[in-house]
Automatic annotation (TrEMBL):
Protein name, per record: WRKY domain
UniProt feature coiled coil, ranges: 19-53
Subcellular location as annotated: Nucleus
Annotated WRKY domain residues: 197-264
Top-rank taxon: Eukaryota
Positions with biased composition (Low complexity): 329-346
CC annotations in GO: nucleus
Annotated region (Disordered), positions in chain: 322-366
Annotated keywords: Coiled coil, DNA-binding, Nucleus, Transcription, Transcription regulation
Main localisation: nucleus
MF term (GO), any: DNA-binding transcription factor activity
Gene3D superfamilies: WRKY domain
Length: 387
DNA sequence: CGCTTTTGACCCGCGC
DNA sequence: GCGCGGGTCAAAAGCG
């Protein structure tokens, strides 16, 4: 009897213990969740700071490149005067081989049919530099920008009613680019990116739609053709091809054209770097190859790149399979304080290897806490030293 | 049902 | 002018 009571007492005791254990566990988990939340907030803050620094750096480097080329200095002055109260209110984005003025005129014509107010807005947009710099005032907020683009997209949708019309518009855009390049004697600038991964669908921040596949004579491995699907009329295309049978894990991705829509953060760095390269290429004799290399070193500090012209296509080749340090690194790049890594989709990123499946260009940016002013100052010094 | 991929046909530039 | 080859189109199939 006593024995039974004792057993039941211990059973009750065990039950209480189990409950209190559960409560303790719950508390501990809550504390952990809270801690993770706090860390998450801190990381968010850090990320936004990094993004801000990166944006202003990119903006300033682009501006310096523009001044270096000496192109459209009058227009720059005009913009500077407009924004002299706040230098940082100017967003400069680079565009490959396409005059913004031409696009804007076209947009203007389209929008003209919709409303005169929108024309005024599109005129505001038309502050462009000679070799494809696009300058936008940040006075209108990003939201306004988006609204404008939605309006334009709607206007275009009204004009473009069938698939055939889409094709016509595409051809017109293509024709514009071709006409422009006929004047310079060069075709559209191409940017080749060689990357090691088993999956050819590199995550470069854009959405692509495959429209063709072809087996070239020179290479028995098929080449895939993709079109940017982030905007209905985006003229950007890319080709993806394996780099040969011995090197089946490497892919050569060739980009051609300019996006006619805002790019996600992951894609913007790549676009800025490659556009800078293309702009420098297109500026031709005014730019020495060494200054071009110097510029590219800042965008792709740890990777091998080369510049060539094949079939009248100025081509920038970025080799992500060949680490570049230290021989091609800019002399003054802060090696000691910087690190470089590629972002991979797996939660615990392994070192880059041929077995990695996706490649994110957002990782191309340096993780070093670079001061934009100091980098800019060093960059200016370096450029002036080369002249 | 709508979007994407596949794939054969077609177009067009280039070299001979 | 012709043939070749790279690039694009578009109908059909696949997929979520």
């Amino acid at each position: 009897m006593i024995k039974e009571e004792t057993v039941s007492y211990f059973q009750t005791f065990d039950g209480v213990m189990a409950e209190s254990d559960k409560e303790e566990e719950l508390d501990a988990t809550k504390a952990k969740v809270e801690k993770v939340r706090e860390e998450n907030e801190k990381l968010k803050l850090l990320l936004s700071t990094i993004l801000n620094n990166y944006n202003s750096l990119q903006m300033q480097v682009s501006k310096v490149l523009g001044q270096q080329q000496g192109a459209s200095s009058m227009e720059l002055d005009h913009i500077d005067r407009q924004d002299e109260n706040n230098d940082y209110d100017v967003d400069i984005s680079l565009r490959l081989g396409r005059s913004e003025q031409k696009i804007s005129k076209k947009e203007e014509n389209k929008v003209d049919k919709i409303s005169t107010k929108d024309v005024e807005e599109s005129k505001d947009k038309r502050s462009a530099l000679g070799f494809g710099f696009q300058i936008q005032s940040y006075e209108a907020s990003k939201l306004d920008d988006l609204c404008r683009q939605v309006k334009l997209a709607n206007a275009e949708n009204k004009c473009v009613s069938s698939r055939k019309d889409v094709k016509t518009v595409r051809n017109e855009n293509h024709q514009d680019v071709l006409e422009e390049h006929e004047q310079t004697g060069l075709k559209k600038t191409r940017v080749c990116v060689k990357a090691s991964c088993e999956d050819p669908s590199i995550n470069d921040g854009c959405q692509w739609r495959k429209y063709g596949q072809k087996t070239a004579k020179t290479n028995p491995l098929p080449r895939a053709y993709y079109r940017c699907s982030m905007s209905s009329n985006c003229p950007v295309r890319k080709q993806v091809q394996r780099c040969g049978e011995e090197e089946t894990s490497a892919f050569m991705t060739t980009y051609e054209g300019n996006h006619d829509h805002p790019l996600p953060m992951e894609a913007s760095h790549m676009a800025a770097g490659t556009s800078a390269a293309a702009s420098l290429l297109q500026s031709g004799s005014s730019s020495s190859s060494s200054s071009t290399s110097a510029s590219l070193s800042y965008f792709f500090p740890f990777h091998h790149f080369s510049i060539s012209t094949t079939n009248s296509h100025p081509t920038v080749t970025l080799d992500l399979t060949r680490p570049n340090y230290p021989n091609q690194l800019p002399d003054d790049y802060p090696l000691s304080s910087s690190s470089f890594s590629l972002n991979f989709s797996s939660p615990d990123p392994p070192p880059p290897s041929s077995h990695d499946h996706t490649l994110n260009f957002s990782g191309l940016r340096t993780q070093a806490p670079l001061s934009t002013d100091s980098l800019l100052a060093r960059y200016r010094t370096r450029l002036s030293g080369q002249q």
